Structure formats: structure tokens, C-alpha cells
Amino acid sequence: MSKIGIVGSGMGSLGFAIRSAVAGHQVSVFDANSYPGGKLAQIETKGFRFDAGPSLFTMPHLVDELFTLAGKNPRDYFRYERLPEICRYFWEDGTRLQTNAAPAETAAAIASELGESEENVARFLREIGENYHIISELFLDNSLHSLSTWTGAKALKGYLNIPRLGLFNTMHRSHAKRFTNPKTVQLFDRYATYNGSDPYQTPATLSIIPHLEYNIGAFFPKGGIISIPRALHRLAEELGVVFHFNEKVSRITTENHTATGIETEKGNYTFDYIACNADIRPSYTKLLAQEPQPKKLLNQPKSSSGIIFYWGMDRSFNELGVHNIFFSDDYQGEFKTIFEDQTINDDPTIYLHISSKVEKSDAPAGGENWFILMNVPANEGQDWDALVARMRKNVITKLSRNLGVDVEKHIVAEDYLDPRRIEARTSSAGGALYGNASNNRFAAFLRHPNYRKAIKNLYWVGGSVHPGGGIPLCLSSAKIAAKLFAENA
Ligand code: FAD
């Protein structure tokens, strides 16, 4: 049995802590915050409840797996349902589209509303599922830095399929070649934002992302997204993991480039192994300042961040579903503004999520809890007070125009997050939601690995390391790190 200390209690940490405890190790987790889950926080105001971070839950089996590993029934800890509807789309010219859980229904809707060939859409959804399985075996389920990943039958299958994986094309060009209506292209391009990237730059390989929603499903946990880290925290404690909340780590101590312990504001702790769940940039510059810095990895462009408005509304809107998108008319311009100009434009694409459509207690009777997210650049010192005020005005104008109602009159409770606040609350560099962006074809190889021989006994989990950000990939990072740990230790 080894003593393991973990910096941070985000999803990557919770996954790694549970796996390590199940393997018989003694685990301690330190977080600067007062709660487990990092970006999975919640906001409560005037009778409204909002999940502050993620709103879309995919791949729930990765959470269930942790309970099963521990010999527990996941349903004794948390429940979720598959949503019958995926998303409602709104365009400025009045075009409306609803996509549904059944791929055949989505293909039929895209055919009837956007004029695509139904068979072509259905084939696309099937193909991204097939590609997902090839890619996940190579990139998502394994370390890219282990020889075993690149040898054997699965790797050979991957090599043989390289031409169909879209490594040498951009996501946008691949969709534009495939579909006739620019709106369909826009709809599938949108999925680049699920890892904070630009569809006009990110490789077509990432076209697999909608597979998660369209072929596996969009899910909603009972009690909201916050119930996921709460359930995992409960399981971890039952397995003997000790949590130190409100205890910020100031240094990971090393001797001869080997991690030896953790220093916090409250004390010094010695461990056999450390896992770091904090973003790689502050981890190296602050916690590991004594070690050589992997400059190439640290200098990659950051993923997008978000401005999020949390609005309690005093009425409900039948034309809205759980997930809604109001598209910008100039999608390419929007991404150029974010990634090249590092600012926001006046016609942003708006994502509007309403959890009270499913979880009635999230809003007072007759009202709705609106979570409104716009993609924005990571914090590089922009004037966020001015940008938030401008964005609020533009969002009210756009939603009012599309819904035919002065939405501002119905806001009765209000809060917001911007990149500065996200950074302050979770220590993510620049408030980037997904670590580094994947805006070039080598991005997967330029993510920080889950273990580097340069600092021994130190493992890395979470959204800024391999395989990437988002709840499912953070849980995968924990799985890969635990596998490497079992091999090395
Ligand atoms: P994080 O959540 O980043 O947590 C890291 C933890 O480490 C924090 O608790 C922090 O306090 C702690 N920490 C850092 N430094 C220290 C230190 N020095 N000492 C002690 N503690 C420290 N993902 C989805 O799957 N679906 C979505 O719909 C989605 N939408 C999102 C919307 C928003 C607004 C945001 C912010 C994120 C969204 N994401 C979404 C992304 C997802 O939330 C993240 O990728 C994921 O939660 C990151 O988890 P993590 O393991 O990297 O840890």
C-alpha cells in the first residue's frame, strides 16, 4: 500500500482517487475550494438553482464504472435519465430544428428542415460512431506515450484507417464537403466547441464528438450535474479517501526530480506518489517552480473560455427545450474574433440551457432557470467588465428578437461567470474551459501526458492533460493514469 496525495478535487481527481483507493492505497485529496468537483459547482439565488459549469452529461457509464469497480451499485448513489430530445436550433432567418435521441429522427428532421439527404445524414451519424471506436482505442483510452499503444492489433486497425479519420483536413472543410446546406455544416461544426476549439482549424478527426450525443445519448442526472461529484465524493470517502477542503497547495516538493510531498498553507505532507489535478500552467509555474518547465507543452494556445449568465426567469417558454442554440449569422467571423483577435463580436452564438425543464425544483413554480453560455477567448487581460456588459446587452437583444419577447423584463435573479472568475475559482489558466485548444492536427500529441519521466512519482489527471477536457475525458485521464501507476509502481 502506498500513500498518495492529490492536488485538486475535480473530476479527474475523483476518478483517480477512487481507482487508487479500490487498489488498496491510502489517498488524501487537497482542494483550495470548500467543495469537491472543481468546475462542477452550483449557484443558488432567489429560489433558482443553476449548475455553474457543465450542463451536458454524456458517457455516464464512465461514472457508473467507478461504483462498479468499488463493488457498489451506482443507482444507490445517483440516477440519471436519457433525454428524448438533444437540442433545439434557432437561426436568424426563422429556421428552426429539433434533434432527437433517435438518430433516425434526427436524420429525418435535418432532411425536412434543412433539405439534406436523409440517408447521407444517417450514414454520417453511423460513420462517426465507427470512427469513434477506432480513435478511442488509440487516443482516448490509452497513454500516447506508451509503446503498447502503438503496437498490436488495435494500433494496426488505427493505422489502416488513418485516411478516414480526417487528420489532414479541418472539421469545417470535411462537413462542407459532406453536406449541402451551410446550416447543417454549422450544426456539426459546433461540436468543435465541446473541447474549446475552432472548427475552421481543428482536425476533422473531432467530427466524432456528436457521436457521444447522437448515438450514445445526452443525459441528465437527478438533482443536476452537481450530483455527479457529490456521489463520487461520497463513494471516495466510503473507500477511506481523506479530503482536505479549503487547503490550497503551495508546492509539490521534489528530490532528484522525484515528487515527495505536498506543502499547503496548513502543513507539509509526505507521500510516496502525487497526482496533480490542477491545470498544468499554474502547476509548473507555482507548484513545481523548482523543476525544469516543459515550455513547448505550456506554450500551446489555450482553449476558449466562456461568459455565462445565470438568469432566473419569472415565466416559462414552450418553444425552448433543455438545450438550445441560437446561431450567429457569421460563424467563421465569430471564431476568428475569439481565437485571432482574442475578443468577442456583437452577434455571438448563444447556448441556452434550462435544467428546470427536467428538474422542476430548479426554479420557482412558473419560472425557468436560464444558463446562457457564449464562447469567448481565455483571459489575456481583456477588459472583461466592459465585455460582459456588452455581451449582456447583445444577448438580450438577440434572444428577444428570436423569441418575440422582451426577455430582460422577465429576469428576476441574476449572476454571471467570466474567464477571470473561472480562473479565480478553479485555477484554470486564463479560465480556459478545456485546457489547451485542439486547433492543429498535432494537438493530441501536444497535450501534457499523464506521466512524465522528467518528474518521477508524479501523475497528471484532468482537463489540461491527455486525453482532454470535459467530464468524460477527465474520467478517462484518471483511468489512464491509474493504469500507468499500476504498471510503474
Ligand atoms: P477542475 O474542475 O478544473 O478542478 C480542479 C480543482 O483543482 C479545483 O477544484 C481547484 O480548486 C483545485 N486546485 C487547483 N489548484 C489548486 C491548488 N494549488 N491547491 C488546491 N487545489 C487546487 N464539460 C462537459 O463534459 N460538458 C459540459 O457541458 C461542459 N460545460 C462546461 C461549462 C462551463 C461553464 C465550464 C467552466 C466547463 C464546462 N465543461 C463541460 C468542462 C468541464 O467542466 C471540465 O473539463 C472538467 O470539469 C475539468 O475537470 P478537472 O478534473 O480538470 O478539474
From TrEMBL:
Indicate whether Oxidoreductase appears among the record's keywords: yes
Pathway assignment reads:
Carotenoid biosynthesis
Instruction: Tell me where in this chain the Amine oxidase domain is found.
Output: 23-483
- GO biological processes: carotenoid biosynthetic process
Pfam families documented for this protein: Amino_oxidase
Q: Which UniProt keywords apply?
A: Carotenoid biosynthesis, Oxidoreductase
MF terms in GO = oxidoreductase activity
The lineage's top-level taxon is Bacteria
Q: What NCBIfam families does this protein map onto?
A: crtI_fam, hydcarot_desat_CrtD
What is stated as this protein's family in its record?
Belongs to the carotenoid/retinoid oxidoreductase family.
Q: What is the protein's name according to its record?
A: Phytoene desaturase
Species of origin reads Aquirufa antheringensis
- Organism lineage: Bacteria, Pseudomonadati, Bacteroidota, Cytophagia, Cytophagales
- What's the gene? crtI
